[in-house]
Amino acid sequence: MDFVFAAPPPVALPVAGSGALFPVRRVYCVGRNYAAHAREMGSDPTREPPFFFCKPADAVLPVAPGTTLELPYPGMTANLHHEVELVAAIGKAGRDIDAGDAAAHVFGYAVGLDMTRRDLQADMRQAGRPWEIGKAYDASAPIGPIHAAGGLAQALARAPIALTVNGQTRQSSSLDQLIWSVPETIAHLSRYFELRPGDLIFTGTPEGVGAVVPGDLMVGSIAGLGSLSVRVIERT
Ligand code: MN
After folding, report:
1. Burial group, residue 85, by CB count within 10 angstroms (0-12, 13-18, 19+)
2. Residues with Cβ < 8 Å from 157, sequence gap 6 or more?
3. Rounded to the nearest 5°, which phi and psi values hold at 106?
């Protein structure tokens, strides 16, 4: 292929226990999917249909097991927040997927951080403007290795999800607190977008979101999926 300049390399996540890589196509995110987080963001938790936003694929930063990613503090914010989330990785295409069939479309699961410039998101929300500058900025999506689904869905149904900052617990909940389960989320999302292999879905964060500053070490974890270690560093 004769590109006018070098095409960007594909974004890919390692697959745990395998030398293979999961190529990332799109990144979808669910907003306010835990009741206690909806309340801390000033909303009433409801069973209104879930809402979605996106991040660009190249916002994904793979974090290899046993390593700590250095994440430069982004520009244009004074309130960078952590949101630890279960990430579902799609392995089979589909649209208008029934929740009962959704598991067949999941390749695997990972721990991810939906890093958020909260001040910008709040400004945009108040002004009725899109969230991109708060949510979809460069390097806003560190994600750990993908664990192939296998029998994991059952084990994850009630799995603890947590995030510590410098060893102090900030977020601690359980995946059974999701307002919309992963299959329900896939069912809703696939009505709006045709899902394709390589798509990632951030499924929402529990309560306890908060600010980090350079020097802080975040460790996100979900039982069964291991942990994800990210240190915020000064932007150079
Ligand atoms: Mn989020």
Report:
1. buried
2. 175, 176
3. -95, 125
For residues 71-82, one letter each, b for 16 or more C-beta atoms within 10 angstroms of the residue's C-beta and e for the rest, the string is bebbeebebbbb
Taking each continuous run of H as one helix and of E as one strand, the counts in the chain are 5, 18
**Which structural domains are found in the chain, ordered by start?**
15-63+81-158+175-209 (3.90.850.10)
- For residue 145, give the nearest of 13, 9, 42 by alpha carbon: 13
Q: Which residues pair with 116 in a beta bridge?
A: 81
pLDDT in tens, 26-61: 999 999 999 999 899 888 887 788 999 999 999 999
Instruction: Measure 140 CA to ligand 1 centroid, in angstroms.
Output: 11
What is the C-alpha to C-alpha distance for residues 82 and 210, in angstroms, rounded to an integer? 6
**Which sign does the torsion angle of CA 53, 57, 61, 66 carry?**
positive
DSSP 123: H
Q: What six digits make up the tokens of 67?
A: 């390593």
Q: Output the CA 82–ligand 1 centroid distance in Å.
A: 9
C-alpha 173 to ligand 1 mean position (Å) = 14
Q: Is 0.90 surpassed by the pTM of this model?
A: yes
